[in-house]
Amino acid sequence: MYNFEFYNPTRILFGKGKVEGIDRLIPADAKVLITYGGGSVKKFGILDQVKTHLGNRKVVEFGGIEPNPHYETLMKAAEVVRNENIDFILAVGGGSVIDGTKFICLATYYKGDATDLLRRGFRPITADIVEKVVPFGAVLTLPATGSEMNTGAVISYDHGKFPVMSEMTYPKFSVLDPTYTFSLPKIQVANGIVDAFVHTVEQYTTFPVDARIQDRMAEGILQTLIEIGETSVNESDNYDVRANHMWSATMALNGLIAVGVPQDWATHMIGHELTALFGIDHGQTLAVIYPAVMDVCREQKKAKLLQYAERVWKIDSGSDNERIDLAIYKTRHFFESLGMKTRLSAYGVTADQLGAVVQALEKHGLTALSENQSITPEVSREILQRAL
Q: How does pLDDT run across 103-148, given as a tens digit for each residue?
């Protein structure tokens, strides 16, 4: 196991009605900006509940944060924070709203060109380059990204998607009420299951470093998602299933299973380019690309893929390649059982368009992906071809 340092200060308020806790966690004299996406938080009464528990605090609203939040939109919100002298931001929504809010917190008082914050890749943004960071909390409505308990965000700009990382953007708290997911469309629930699943395998199907706790935690998350996936999609008001879905998604990317282990993230990086170029949902891109990554990278990932096959899918007979093939098949079948397509051609992407994806990866410096930097543009092209 690698050396590591773990820190996660986010307070979690989990369960029905826990939104009432925001009143004691936000300073009583704070002027609060509520950020949200479309109209669903208004339509289903979540925004009204939040405002009720904010009491007599002064409240400003900023809606319209897109899925895959746009830099330009977030800079408008940053201007509101400055002009209104906002003390605290409360993100009400899914991962895109929370990601966008993290960027707003960082960009509002950044003295330079805020696009600089998009160009650091996975290098964290630190206090020496940002004069002041506005604190924020979150009320989660879509379990998927884990953004409610981590430092990361992904921001869309100039036909690309850019990771933004900073310890200064841990949410002060996050409210996780499974009932807030009851109104979600099935496709968003399925996207969330796949996103949590692939977050987990990005940190698990790499190579062994004898990190037994992390492995078994990851396997537990994967097994839970497999057990509840179809039910979560099809039974919108099943509280227990949605509670397990919500906590699985948080645990998949709050840092616990990441400590001391190698990480991949090639599926996400390739998937980001597919979203940017073709508008395919993030979760849908992952369902397409991850089985192809398993296939193409089976030799470098062999030991962990065999462990994944045995421990997650109970595959314990056959040759190594036969077991890996069956694990890939079962993974693809699981995604498809959620109503997800697992081929690029199902989204209208053709072989002659793959070159544009590879060019975008090269443009964004994504030329040495995976846990051992072995996925070159040529290998990315092979992955895309297997995914057709």
A: 999 999 998 999 999 998 889 999 989 989 999 999 999 999 999 9
Q: Could you give the CA distance from residue 246 to residue 228 in angstroms, rounded to a whole number?
A: 11
First-to-last alpha carbon distance for the chain, in angstroms, is 36
Give the Cα separation of 338 and 334 in Å (integer): 7
Give residue limits of the domains in the chain. Answer: 11-180, 184-387
Whole-model pTM: value is: 0.96
What are 328-357's pLDDT values in tens digits? Answer: 999 999 999 999 999 999 999 999 999 999
Q: What is the CATH number of domain 11-180?
A: 3.40.50.1970
CATH code for residues 184-387: 1.20.1090.10
